[in-house]
Design goal:
It contains 20 helices and 3 strands. It has about 425 residues and is an all-alpha fold. It folds into 2 domains: about 1-20 and about 35-285 and about 390-415, Citrate Synthase, domain 1, CATH 1.10.580.10; about 285-380, Cytochrome p450-Terp, domain 2 (Orthogonal Bundle). β2 (about 60-65) and β3 (about 65) form a beta hairpin. It binds carboxymethyldethia coenzyme *A. Carboxymethyldethia coenzyme *A (CMX) binds near residues 305, 310, 315, 365 and 369. The site of carboxymethyldethia coenzyme *A (CMX) has 17 residues, from loops.
Length: about 425
C-alpha cells in the first residue's frame, strides 16, 4: 500500500536522525518541571515528541509544518468540492508530504475496499441499552474489532520490533476505513431508521459520510471533510492523543489504544465542550426570543461571568490568537449560510466576548476556540442531536492519533513510564 512504501522509504533517515540526536545530545536539558506543573496537570511540561502536528500559540495548529489554511489550499479536492479529500490529509499526516490527487485517491480507495464493518459490531451495538451514550457505543464498536488486529497477531508470532509498524499501519487503515460507517450507524440507531449504512466506493470519505448520515443538503459532504480535517490532530499532549500514545506504548494494538483514546475524548473537559457551546447559543436565542443586540449580548456575558461560569468556546490553554480551526468554520458558515439564526448569534458573540474577557482580565486568551462554532455548523445541516457531536470529533481525531501510533512504533518509542513523587517529597524539595 502506498503509505507503507512512503514510510518505508523515509524510515532509515528518520531512525538515523533520532539515534544521532540521542547519542550525541541525549543528556541536554529540554525543559524543567515545577511543583505547580506536577500538581497542575503537567501543563506545558515538554515531555513528548511528535512530528505530525504542532500547536504554535501565535499561529495555531500546523500539520506537518503547514498552517490549516495552507493545508486546505494545497490538498487535492474532489471535482466541484471546496474542501479536500480526507484521504489526502491522512497521507499528509502519515507521510509528511502533500499528495497528488492520485496519491490521495489511493488512500480513499483503500478505505473503500476495507469499509465493511464486521456484523458482530452492529449486533453488539443493537443489543446495548437504549440510553447508552453514543461515545460509549463508539468506543465499544472499536474494541469489538480488536480480534482482527494484524499487529496483535504478528506480535504474538514474534515479528521483529523494527517491522512492527507495518501491521500497525494495516490496522490503522482498517480501523479508519470503518469509523465513518460506525459513526453513521450509531447516529441512525439512536436517532434514525436504525439501518446499516453502506459505503459507496464511488464516493470519497466525506461524501460517503454525508450519504450514510442521510443528510440531504449536498454541501454537507464538504462540511464533513472540513470537520474531520480540522479535528484530526492537535499535537500530543491533549487527552485523546496522549491516551492513545500511552496505551500504545505498552504495545497494545490500535483497537485497545484508540478505544481508550475515545474514552478520554468523551469527557466534558475535552470533546464534550462543543455541545456546551451550542447550548449556550440556544439559551441566548431563547432568552432574547431571537438574536440579541450587542449590548444585550454583552450584559448576558457579564451575567454569565458574574455567576461564576465560563463562556464556552472562548479561551485556550495553549493558543493566544483566534483558533484557526474556528476561523475556517466561521468563514465556511459566513459564505454558505450567513442568515442562519444561530450563526448570527455566534457572530455577535465573536464581536462581544473577546472584549468582555479582556476587560475582565482573567483569561489569558480571550479569542474563540474550535468548539465555539462547530455545533452551529452541524445544527445547520440538521444534525441537531448534541450527544452525537463528540463521535464526529472522534472520527476526525482518529486520523491524527493513528498516524502518531504508527510513527511511534516505526521509531521504536518505548513504554511510557514517568516517575511519581509523594507530597512529602515535594515538600522536602520546596524546603531546600
Ligand atoms: N470564560 C470565563 N473565564 C475564562 C474563560 C472563559 N471562556 N477562559 C479562561 N477563563 C478563566 C479561567 O477559568 C481562569 O480562571 P481562574 O483563575 O478563576 O481559575 C482564568 O481565566 C485563567 O485561565 P487560562 O489560563 O486563560 O485558561 P486555562 O488554560 O486554565 O483553561 C480553557 C483553558 C479552554 C479550559 C478555558 O479557557 C475555558 O474554560 N474556556 C471555556 C470552555 C471551552 O471553550 N472549552 C473548550 C476548549 C477547546 C480545546 O481545548 O480545544
Amino acid at each position: 500500500m502506498i503509505l507503507h512504501n512512503k514510510i518505508d522509504a523515509q524510515l532509515p533517515s528518520w531512525r538515523n536522525r533520532v539515534t544521532t540526536l540521542l547519542k550525541e545530545h541525549g543528556d541536554k536539558v529540554a525543559g524543567e518541571v515545577t511543583i505547580s506543573q506536577i500538581y497542575g496537570g503537567m501543563r506545558s511540561v515538554k515531555a513528548l515528541v511528535t512530528d505530525i502536528s504542532f500547536v504554535d500559540p501565535n499561529v495555531g495548529i500546523r500539520f506537518r509544518g503547514h498552517t490549516l489554511p495552507e493545508v486546505i489550499e494545497a490538498l487535492p479536492k474532489p471535482e466541484g468540492a471546496e474542501m479536500p479529500y480526507v484521504g489526502g490529509l491522512y497521507y499528509l499526516l502519515m507521510v509528511g508530504e502533500f499528495p497528488t490527487e492520485e496519491e490521495a485517491l489511493k488512500v480513499e480507495r483503500a478505505w473503500a475496499k476495507d469499509s465493511k464493518v464486521p456484523d458482530h459490531v452492529f449486533t453488539i451495538l443493537r443489543n446495548m441499552p437504549e440510553d447508552t451514550h453514543p461515545m460509549a457505543l463508539f468506543s465499544q464498536a472499536i474494541l469489538a474489532m480488536q480480534g482482527g488486529s494484524k499487529f496483535a497477531k504478528r506480535y504474538a508470532e514474534g515479528m521483529s520490533k523494527m517491522d512492527i509498524w507495518r501491521p500497525a499501519l494495516d490496522d490503522a487503515m482498517y480501523l479508519t476505513s470503518k469509523l465513518g460507517v460506525i459513526a453513521a450507524f450509531i447516529y441512525r440507531l439512536k436517532y434514525g431508521d436504525k439501518g446499516e449504512p453502506t459505503y459507496d466506493p464511488n464516493l470519497d470519505y466525506g461524501a460517503n459520510f454525508a450519504q450514510m448520515m442521510g443528510v440531504k443538503d449536498p454541501e454537507y459532504a464538504d462540511m464533513a471533510r472540513l470537520y474531520f480535517i480540522l479535528h484530526s490532530d492537535h499535537e500530543s499532549g491533549n487527552v485523546s492523543a496522549h491516551t492513545m500514545h500511552l496505551v500504545g506504548s505498552s504495545l497494545s494494538d490500535i483497537y485497545y489504544a484508540f478505544s481508550a483514546s475515545m474514552n478520554g475524548l468523551a469527557g466534558p473537559l475535552h470533546g464534550l465542550a462543543n455541545q456546551n457551546c451550542l447550548a449556550f447559543l440556544m439559551n441566548v436565542q431563547k432568552e432574547f426570543d431571537g438574536t440579541p443586540t450587542e449590548e444585550e449580548m454583552e450584559k448576558y456575558c457579564w451575567d454569565t461571568l458574574n455567576s461564576g461560569k465560563v463562556i464556552p468556546g472562548y479561551g485556550h490553554a495553549v493558543l493566544r490568537v483566534p483558533d484557526p480551526r474556528y476561523t475556517a468554520q466561521f468563514e465556511y458558515a459566513k459564505s454558505h449560510f450567513p442568515e442562519d439564526k444561530l450563526f448570527e448569534i455566534a457572530n455577535i458573540m465573536n464581536k462581544v466576548v473577546p472584549r468582555v474577557l479582556q476587560e475582565q482580565g482573567k483569561a489569558k486568551n480571550p479569542w474563540p476556540n474550535v468548539d465555539s462554532i462547530s455545533g452551529t455548523l452541524q445544527y445547520h445541516y440538521g444534525i441537531t442531536e448534541f450527544d452525537f457531536y463528540t463521535v464526529l470529533f472522534g472520527v476526525g481525531r482518529a486520523l491524527g492519533v493513528t498516524a502518531n501510533y504508527v510513527w511511534a512504533r516505526a521509531l521504536g518509542q518505548p513504554l511510557e513510564r514517568p516517575k511519581s513523587l509523594t507530597t512529602a517529597m515535594l515538600e522536602e524539595i520546596a524546603a531546600k
